[in-house]
Amino acid sequence: MTLLKRNLELLYATNTRLKGKIDENQISQHCFTPQEVENIETKFLGDYLSTLDKRVVKHATFFPRNTRSIDDWSETYGSKYAEEKVVPLEFSEYYRLHDDIHAYRSMSSIARILADIGYDPTDTISMACKNIHTLIAFGTGSGIELKSLIRTFQPRNLIVIVSDWNEFTSSFSYLDWEQLWQLFTSDTRLPRIHLVRSESENQTFIECCHFGILSLNHAHVYIADNISSKLRMWSDALFGSRVGNSVIYTGYTVDEYNMLINTVQTLRASERMFSTSVTLPLCDHAIVCASGPSLDNSISILSEASKSSLVVCGGSSIRSLLKHGIRVDVLCLMERDHEVYDAYYQLAQELDLSSTTVVMSTTCDPRIPALFPRSVLFFRPALSPLSIFCRDPQEILPCEGPEAINTAFSFVCQLGIPNITLFGCDLGSALAERDRSVDAAAFTHRHWDRKVPGNLSPEVFTNKAMLDVAEVLTACADMYGQNATIRNASDGVMIKGIDPIHPTDISTLLTTNQSPPVSLVEWYRRLPAILTSRTYSSWRAAAIRKECESLCNDLLTLFAQSTVSTIYETSESLCNILQLDGSINEQYPKRVVRSTLFKAFLTVMQQYEIMRKSAEGNAQFIQFYDRSLAVMRNVTIAVRREVFDLCDTIENELLRAS
Amino acid sequence: VSETSALPKFSAEQLTANINYLTHKYPLLADTLQLDSAHTRIDVDEIGFKHGDEYRLSIDQQVVSASPLSSSVSYIKQSSIQARKLRMAVLSTVYSPATPLHLAELIHRRDACIISSCLECFDKPLDLYREAHRGISRHIYINGSALLPFFLFHYQTQIEQKVFHSITISECNPAYLAFALGFFSFEALTANLQRLGVRLNLLFDNDIDILKDRFYHYYSAVEPLAVYALSVLNSPVRDPQLDELYSWIFSESGFGYRFRGAFGNSTDELNQFSNTYKNIRASSTSRWFKVNKNLIKTGYCALVGSGPSYETSKTDLQALNSHVVVFAAGSSLGSLLRDKVKVDYVVILERSETIFDDLSVLLNEGYRLDDINLIASITIDPRVPSLFASTTFYARPLSASVYLVANPEDKALPFAGPESLNAGIEVVTSLGLKNVLLFGADFAAIDPNLPRARQAYGYSDRIFDEPVIGNMGRTVYSVHTLLVSRDAFSSIINSFPELTVVRVGEGAQLFSSITNCPSLSPSFLKNVESVSSTDTLLEVSQFLNTLPLVDNVDSALHHVKELISLLPLYRNEVLEAFNNLDPFDSPSLHLFEKKYITLLCEDANPARSALLRLTRPILLAVIGLLVNAMPPQVSSISPLLSNSIRSSLEIFFSSVECYLSRYVADA
Question: What residues of chain B lie within 8 A of the CB of A644, using their CB?
């Protein structure tokens, strides 16, 4: 029986649904001579090795690698968290911090270890050598090239991604898949080979992370010539920012602490919880304001329109309106920063807030509700307090970030108001020298580095962050504003899916039979009440201490058992332990510790790839690895203590209240 | 359920009809609902745009819950997969095969269940037992009444086929219950379930702690077989307080250990019975404890446990030694003697023979016990009393051994356990002492590697792996067995409102109104130092020296004989149920289970009750295993398992009979 036939039989035996779906005639049956095979392999490997920097995945670096980054690093962290100041740092001192000091501490320790063993931290050169962690193959080509890569680099894991099964069967004449399967399964509990057909870019990236996000570090990538253009495009994700973001966007420890503390306090300080189902008809028209510079040109129009519209401000624009005597019905906030409170405290001293209801994230500063006559809380969909305190999905406000204007817009969409008009939602500026409304509260520095088509002007200045805001507004309008007529009267960035309207034309939207928004108080009254006893029950049910203890014990066991020879295995186990797909109660401690440990372990793995290029480096790495593991053990123990302190703080607060 | 549109609809008229029905049948529950409907407005609005699958539940127009019904529907559709199973793992210890003759060898063992040794087909059924529990169980618990209409709708065929034996619902919010009652006729439901022999139980209370108690009492007293395989369905739409209940149900320190602890194990019960009989016969000078119904208002007592905080607080205790009556709870006696603290009484609960060895170590070290008075459970090792100056026995009310005690009401502590420290607080409060100082009563440790006072006698193999909030507001480590003891300890303190308790040292938080302090303040020390312990000691001794034990010897023997005579009848009753059991027939299994539930309930006849307590842990374990591994889940192993369990029970009863007869022969 030919290899092709055996491979086909194996395929059909393991996946009967594929029978009849594979075009067997497409599979090359051309027989290469051994010499031809050798020539193909030699040429391919030569090309591969000469373009290695385009074939190996680079993960984010969290470690200062050159003189400049070391200086920058010291400037950012060194003066603030010099070791003598941070060890030991009282738990209460974390409150109001916005820096990732846990990652800083572990990186500092790892940097010291490197210095102690005498290895140059600026050496970032790694070399291709055998026993790599992961080989990711997009398609299998003729099989000759893939086989030569496997033989040369001897990967621990093999991931094969295809967009069509024919991209897999194309290798059947030259690759013995039964043998390959045995190679990657014989000495292991779980298969180290992952073969999958992907249907999207997102799925492709997720499949690449099959052995954990850390396994992408220094992963080799093979892209077969015969794959579809879409699969080729999807493979680009491995060489963009997404790889690094997969670790960067795992949050950070101090932020998780503070979000939880804020949530507990805001739940105590507020009376009502937002619910997407309470959609009392407030009025026919809502104005949503942001603090773009064009807001100032619309003040007189807004003054008139506000008489028969619900006025909702996203963050700082409230001051511009109040200062001109325009009533603001709702202020929407989502940022956790404590400076936000200072800004609104100043505002409360200066202007009358008695007719404004604040709608804010549970993670905002808990002192804010006291500045307003009514406060309503919502849960942010991607943040950890949700996993502990939210029991009704309707308490979540979707598309609420990254800026307060997103919160305001999403909120208005959820209310079911039929007409919505955006003002000052510039997300940039028609004039380079102006970046926000003159009277807006607080201060935000914006730097414009892009020009894009404008909403009312042909072209406007903006930046990447503001374009992200626009993207979420578009998605929100698409998902939640389908029953509303939404217009944008701002002289700023053109927002896809939202029609422009000149501010002066706004009067055409306002009909005489519109009632003033008196029903806002009624809407507030109908919202679910926040009861301390319920908050306490949710907290007790989450059993965070117990989950944290169990997680930390798993981590400590993992670190205690790891050696250099099992470094890849350890990285995979670490990713497994910290995966968020367990029960909702298990999530919080994982969220707290995962970013710090991912960053630390990734740094160690990156150092492994650098140091193992020489025999001396290999020997030094053994010492480096053992001591780095001790750092990670200490981080785990410290975080466990801190989570207990956090629980104590929260429980004492809650117990006192109940 | 094929389409969401086929779902039942909420109807205000249905709710009103149900309230009217409940007013006649269950007035208390109806009152709760009436109150809400009279004073507030309950609205259930359908707000879904597409399938009518979203609702908004409001009380007095304030939204209580607003969730898609579709989440309940999809949950129910997936319930056989999603529902968590509560499974008591009593049958977890495998022994080598034993015969009745080996029973004596098992005495003094601490193992959970001796019957498992008799299950020859043990390995196979256990595997299949696991297999059986992949589907939904016969016993259903629904956490949150809003899910009930969807459960009834989705499982209507299975209900008619008598697949389910019991359905229990917990609720703490009348609005959710009102919501559920708007979907179906409660009267029709109860009538139908009654016809089918399905037990329906609604646990309703606004207070989540009371609800936990009701859950515990229901499953321990009424439906004990259910806990071996209970499908727990958590309503996606529920009051957040029910999350706490749900978490408690699956927690070892919550429902799990409390349930297992309450039933004990048969080995322990037999050993306790044996020790009680021996103590009654042997102790010519010992006395019975007598509960004092009046308060001893003057003076202070110190109750000392062997928690690690004892080390930091012992200087306070040493300073007060001559001003307080010192009660050492169990192993703390070692610490106190070694620290030269004069002990007036030691309270011992454990029946294990190792206590005698531990006390012997103290004697060998040169410490004297003959100036200390022992207050001990009548179930302790009979060699222990001879070591002390005097012995006063208390009875354990929940043990089979209490049957051997004549008029046990005044001689028994309220619970007598589960730890010596619990017995200690029960002794102190039953004596009427009003001012109590607690030392080393930690139920936890700050450092899990230092779990007890250094010089406490014996050793503990507890692993402190459960972090909990401490009495000083910071996290301490505990273990689920101690947390259950802590809860029992708190409830004893709470049941004596006039008690003044000062707890010195850091440990697990008690749920009682007491004063916590790391050490006693100088002013407090001064205050106690102004009091002498002599008068208090005198008063206490009055209640410890009144009832001689020797009076009970004849009645105890008589009771043993009575048990022996009753045993064949009881055994026949237990085994008779097997004769009518057809493992392939669901109704027959239904009857079998009902029979056992009746058999397992406490009986007014004390002799029968004693037999029940001796044998119940085993019956619970094996019959629970049997009924929950029966069809429709697994049919092939049922006859094998049924026969095996029947023969195992026969062996067990022969063993018990042999065992009891020995006492009569000895007498």
Answer: 467, 474-475
What is the residue type of B11?
S
**Residue pairs spanning A and B at CB distance below 8 A:** 87
Q: pLDDT band for B84, please (50, 70, 90 cuts).
A: low
Mutate to test the interface with B, among A272, A388, A392 (most CBs of B within 10 A): A392
Put the strands of the sheet holding A193-197 in their side by side order.
Answer: A193-197, A157-162, A134-138, A220-223
Is A519's Cβ below 8 Å from some Cβ in B? no
Fill in the DSSP letter of residue A31: P
Q: Which of these, B489, B281, B278, lies nearest to B379 by C-alpha position?
A: B278
Do the chains contact at A277 and B47, CB–CB below 8 Å? yes
- Of residues B82 and B511, the one with the higher pLDDT is B511
Q: Which of A427-441, B252-266, B498-512, B651-665 has the highest mean pLDDT?
A: B498-512
Please report the pLDDT score of residue B295 as a whole number: 78
Tokens read off for A550: 């169990």
- Distant-in-sequence, close-in-space partners of B40: CB < 8 Å, separation ≥ 6: B59, B60
The amino acid occupying position B369 is: L
How high is the pLDDT of residue B1? 34
User: Which among B62, B241, B475 has CB closest to A648?
Assistant: B475
Q: Where do runs of H (alpha helix) occur along B156-309?
A: 156-160, 174-181, 186-196, 208-217, 241-249, 257-263, 266-282
- 3-class state of residue B410 by DSSP: helix
pTM: 0.82
- Is residue A88 over pLDDT 60? no
Q: Could you give phi then psi for residue A113, rounded to 5 degrees?
A: -60, -45
pLDDT tens digits along B117-130: 334 333 444 444 45
CA B65, CA B43: separation in Å to the nearest integer? Answer: 11
DSSP letter string over A272-336?
Answer: EE--TT------SEEEEE---GGGGGGHHHHHHHGGGSEEEEETTHHHHHHHTT----EEEE---
The tokens of B356 are what?
A: 């005698």
Lowest-pLDDT range, B135-139, B190-194, B363-367?
Answer: B135-139
Sign of the four-CA dihedral B573, B574, B579, B583: positive
Within 10 angstroms of residue B213's Cβ, the number of other Cβ atoms is 15
Two structure tokens written together for A407: 């919160």
Nearest to B241 among A278, A534, A553 (CB): A534
Cα distance between residue A383 and residue A401, in whole Å: 12
Q: Report pLDDT for B5.
A: 46
On whether any CB of chain B is under 8 Å from the CB of A266, the answer is no
Beta-bridge partners for B203: B170
Say if residues A232 and A223 touch (Cβ distance below 8 Å). yes
**Alpha-carbon gap, residue A414 to A481, rounded angstroms:** 8
Query: What span, in angstroms and rounded, lies between the C-alpha atoms of A460 and A494?
Result: 9
pLDDT of residue B460: 84
**Per-residue pLDDT for B114 more than 50?**
no
More confident residue, B622 or B223: B223
Q: Which of chain B's residues have a Cβ under 8 Å away from the Cβ of A276?
A: 66
Within 10 A of A109 (CB to CB), how many other CB atoms are there?
20
Rounded CA separation A638/A548 (Å): 12
Kindly tell me the burial class for residue B373, based on how many C-beta atoms sit within 10 Å of its own C-beta (0-12, 13-18, 19 or more): buried
**Rounded CA gap, A12 and A14, in Å?**
5
CA dihedral in degrees (B208, B214, B215, B220; nearest 10)? 150
- The overall average pLDDT reported for chain A is 88
Give the strand order in the sheet containing B515-517: B515-517, B500-504, B433-439, B296-304, B324-329, B345-348, B373-377, B390-394, B287-288, B547-548
pLDDT digits 0-9 by tens, A101-144: 888 888 888 888 998 899 988 888 888 888 999 999 999 999 99
Neighbours of A633 (CB within 10 A): 16
